[in-house]
Design brief:
It is a single chain. The protein has about 300 residues and is mainly alpha-helical. The chain has a domain of about 170 residues: MetI-like (MetI-like fold, Orthogonal Bundle). It is about 70% helix and about 0% strand. Strands 1-2 form a two-stranded antiparallel ribbon. A hairpin with a 7-residue loop joins β1 and β2. The protein is globular, with a radius of gyration of 27 Å. The N and C termini lie far apart (about 75 Å). The model has no long low-confidence stretch (mean pLDDT about 85).
């Protein structure tokens, strides 16, 4: 007679094989976790600690504890507020065209049945270019005398525009460059959203006599509401972090960096030019709070609008 041995296991305990699988997965994740803590979590903690000190980047520099001194200083710093205004102005000027142009291009390309890949590639290609290449291309285009844009304006009898030296058009110049450079990313998101809309809805609306404009108003735009929320949030966050194109264009091709300098540029100047890392860290965390508040407000507004739709 065979005797079967029953094994007892504590309720809720994982089998030995499951534990080995979890341990193996953890070992595979360990290098990433180490890199994540060393290069992201720890710098965030260290930067927050620096914001309470008069921390100098110079070797042997002072590290005097100031408490909230750096935060009090930035509240009275006119350059901080002007840099913050430049950032907000750029966001206000760049976000609408980057959203609307991307939507229009996506709707047009979505109707193309032949060689659609070519248009996707053409509109997205500038987005993969390095910022230095983009800035140098547009510096050449905006040059007075021999620049392509000013040459064309002159041929039309409109005269030249001092794109890189006139402080009244400096921010518009940056917006033009940014729209050309980054609109392809939003275009791809919108195109993906359009391709998820069932064609049956368009067929049914056409049977009911809806025109193309009415289909866009009552079918396309409402069904793209989630995509629009994503695009607008990502675009606002990207615009608030503007720095590279302004820094490259107005340190190599023009004289208007002080009148277009964004808040990230001022943080860079304080931290790596004036070597005031503590003050730069304080500005960084103050700006982080502003971005966080903007994101929360926009998500709440977008959720309310989506619920009403």
């Amino acid at each position: 007679m065979e005797v079967t041995e029953k094994t007892t296991r504590t309720p809720g305990a994982k089998p030995a094989g499951r534990r080995r699988t979890d341990l193996t997965g953890l070992l595979f994740l360990l290098p990433f976790l180490v890199a994540y803590v060393l290069f992201l979590v720890w710098p965030i903690i260290l930067g927050f600690r620096m914001s309470f000190f008069n921390w100098s980047l110079v070797s042997g520099g002072s590290r005097e504890f100031l408490g909230l001194g750096n935060y009090r200083e930035l509240l009275g710093d006119p350059v901080f507020w002007s840099s913050l205004w430049h950032t907000l102005l750029f966001t206000i000027l760049s976000t609408p065209p980057l959203v609307l142009i991307a939507l229009v291009l996506a709707m047009l390309v979505n109707r193309v049945k032949f060689a659609q890949w070519f248009f996707r590639f053409s509109f997205f290609a500038p987005f993969v270019l390095p910022v230095s290449v983009v800035a140098l291309i547009w510096i050449w285009l905006f040059q007075p005398g021999y620049g392509l844009i000013n040459s064309y304006l002159t041929s039309l009898g409109l005269g030249e525009v001092s794109w890189l030296t006139d402080e009244n058009v400096a921010m518009i110049t940056v917006v033009i460059v940014t729209v050309w450079w980054t609109v392809g990313f939003n275009f791809v998101l919108y195109l993906a959203g359009l391709q998820e809309i069932p064609t049956d809805l368009y067929d049914a609306s056409a049977v009911d006599g809806a025109s193309a404009l009415e289909q866009t108003r009552w079918v396309t735009i409402p069904l793209l509401s989630r995509t629009t929320v994503l695009v607008v949030v990502l675009q606002i966050l990207a615009s608030l972090k503007v720095f590279d194109q302004i820094y490259v264009m107005y340190t190599q091709g023009g004289l208007n960096y002080p009148v277009t300098r964004p808040i990230v540029g001022y943080v860079y100047d304080q931290g790596f030019t004036s070597y005031r890392v503590g003050y730069g860290s304080a500005m960084s965390y103050a700006f982080f709070l502003i971005i966080l508040l903007v994101s929360i407000v926009w998500f709440l507004v977008a959720r309310r609008r989506e619920g009403s739709v």
